[in-house]
Amino acid sequence: MSSLTPETGQDLSGWVGQQFNLDASTLRSYFYEHREIDAVQHLFRVASSLDSMVVGEPQILGQVKNAYAAGRLGGTIGPHLEKLLQSAFFVAKKVRTETQVGNASVSIASVNRRATLSALNL
């Protein structure tokens, strides 16, 4: 997993800046990168919805699966990444079924709604 684009070797913030006519140096503060085992751990935590603003949020795994589908469609998922992602999906399912994560089935939108209603005393 790399933040370098294969075509140009430029970092992701440089590519996004170029595509959307934005200053790459300003964008860099909004990006972060994980390498090797840190990248694997991050993927598993994200897919399992443990690294989320709302732990257990079900939409996160769907977003990872959508990114996987787009990668497969684009031909960018090689055999190692395929195995890694399938393992992440397996672990995410295991986390949801064998722990209390996700039992409340909340989303950021539902948490925001509850907070707003509470603040307005509704």
UniProtKB/TrEMBL annotation:
<dbReference type="Pfam" id="PF05201">
    <property type="entry name" value="GlutR_N"/>
</dbReference>
<feature type="domain" description="Glutamyl-tRNA reductase N-terminal">
    <location>
        <begin position="9"/>
        <end position="99"/>
    </location>
</feature>
<dbReference type="GO" id="GO:0050661">
    <property type="term" value="F:NADP binding"/>
</dbReference>
<dbReference type="GO" id="GO:0019353">
    <property type="term" value="P:protoporphyrinogen IX biosynthetic process from glutamate"/>
</dbReference>
<dbReference type="InterPro" id="IPR036343">
    <property type="entry name" value="GluRdtase_N_sf"/>
</dbReference>
<dbReference type="InterPro" id="IPR015895">
    <property type="entry name" value="4pyrrol_synth_GluRdtase_N"/>
</dbReference>
<dbReference type="GO" id="GO:0008883">
    <property type="term" value="F:glutamyl-tRNA reductase activity"/>
</dbReference>
<protein>
    <recommendedName>
        <fullName>Glutamyl-tRNA reductase N-terminal domain-containing protein</fullName>
    </recommendedName>
</protein>
<dbReference type="InterPro" id="IPR018214">
    <property type="entry name" value="GluRdtase_CS"/>
</dbReference>
